[in-house]
Each structure stands twice: as structure tokens, then as C-alpha cells.
Write a structure and sequence with these properties.
Elements: E1 7-14, E2 18-27, E3 32-37, H1 46-56, E4 60-70, E5 77-79, H2 81-98, H3 105-109, E6 115-117, H4 123-191, H5 197-210, H6 214-232, H7 238-257, H8 262-282
Parallel strand pairs: 3-4
Antiparallel strand pairs: 1-2, 2-4, 5-6
Helix pairs in contact: 1-4, 4-5, 4-6, 4-8, 6-7, 7-8
Length: about 290
Amino acid sequence: MLYSMTAFARSESNTKTLHIIWEIKSVNHRFLEPYFRVPEGLRVIETKIRDLTRKKIKRGKIDGFLKLEYQPGHSGMKINQEVLEQLMVSIEKVKTKLQTTEVSPMDILRWPGLIEDQLNHDLELETLAIDLYDEALEKLIDFRQREGHQLKNIIRTKLDEIDSIVSSIKADSGNIQAMQKEKLLFRLSELEAKVDSDRVEQEVALLLQKSDITEELDRLSIHVSEGRKIIDNPGAHGRRLDFLSQELNRESNTLGSKATTPNLTQQAIDLKVSVEQIREQVQNIE
């Protein structure tokens, strides 16, 4: 089963005070690279959600965004009364001693530790955020699986096209060799030169050997067979398919360089087009 690396998912939930939203998106990447944006008070959950991600996803750049919206009538701000009282006592002492003017309330609010984040040490909220992330992650995986199924069908179609082209070339290969030999002998006869017949046969055989495409066709057939096995087996196969597409590309290039007839040249071009389309698609596979 193939999984795409491109997907998006969203999960949300409500408590009495909060509306909680997780959004996750994933894009192509050579490795697994998770990145999360969560409110400061919930930073402690990052390790757990990172571990969840690594257990369920092998490759891709994962961006997770946790958004908290307070319900009407609720606020995330809480003043630490103890700190405020100590601060006010200190302010009065300073004002008496230095005879300063009144202190701005905004300056007081900026005092470190005066404003408390109500999210800190809320174990119930931490658990809910982790569970909600896990739910969104499952949705993301389902999306990647559906996309992967479509990619699998595309790749299978392209492998079938390559197989069909290779079979067609194999069927014509005998005629191609005979036509090439006939062309070489005809050119020699046009020269009206006296050449030893044995030497001619040797040279013709050498030229035919250099232009022989049997090995390339056999390798292309093997790669097509291996590609079909890969896409039908479970697991993350993006890297294997990427390597396989490179091998298909190399063999198709070699075959094209050995083309000696217009028909074979066109078949080699068609082959490279199908291989390139596979190479483009496998970049999206986990």
C-alpha cells in the first residue's frame, strides 16, 4: 500500500472554556521532519505528539498547528494576586522615598510573573490536546492513503505502458537487426571496394553487437516487474520507487542512444515520457 506525502487534516473539540483546533498538513520531504506550533502553556505535549508522529509516519514534512479560542465570557489571563500585592508594597516604598509620580497600570502588567497563563499545568487539557492531535493525525494518514491509492493506479498504468513498449520493441528487434545488417552491406556495396568477406562479416557483427538492445530490454522488463511488486506490498516504498525510476530512466536513455530506426527512436521517446511521469509521481510517495 502506498501513501502520499501530501495531505491536510483538521480536528476540533470544545470544553467549557475553550474551543480547541488542531490543523496538520504534510508535504514532500526526504526524511520525516515534524514541526509544531502550540501555545506556550502546552509546550510540554510536544515530545508526546512528536513520538506519535514518528510511530505512524515515515517520511514528509509535517506542520502541526494547535489553536485555542476562549469561549465567550472566559479569558486566558489571570493575575497572580500574591505577586501583585508584593509589587504594590514595593511601589509605595519607592514612591515615598523618591517622591515619584503615579505608576502606569500598563507598566505594572508588564511585571514578570504577574500575568499567569491558565494553561500551565492543566493535565486534563494536555491529555485532550494530545488525543485530539492523534485524531487529526489519523485523518491525515487516511488522506495520505487515499492519495497514495491514486498514485498507485497512475504508476501501475505507466508501468503497463513501459511493458507494452518494451514488448513491441522485442517483437521488432529481430527485424531491426536484419535491417541494420542489410543497410551496412548495401553501403559497402555502394563503395565498390574489394573487401575481404570474412572481415566484412566481423565488422558487421561488431557493429550489430554495439547496437544490440537486448540487455536494456531485459532490464526494463525486470524493473517493471519489480515496480509492480513494490506498489502491491505494504510499507513505505517511496525511496525504493525513486531508485527504480532512476534505473528505468538510465536504461531508456541507453536504449535511445542505440536507436537505429525512426520507429525505434519514437518508441524510445515514448518510453522516456512514461518513465519521467513515474519519476514525477514517486516524489510524492512516502
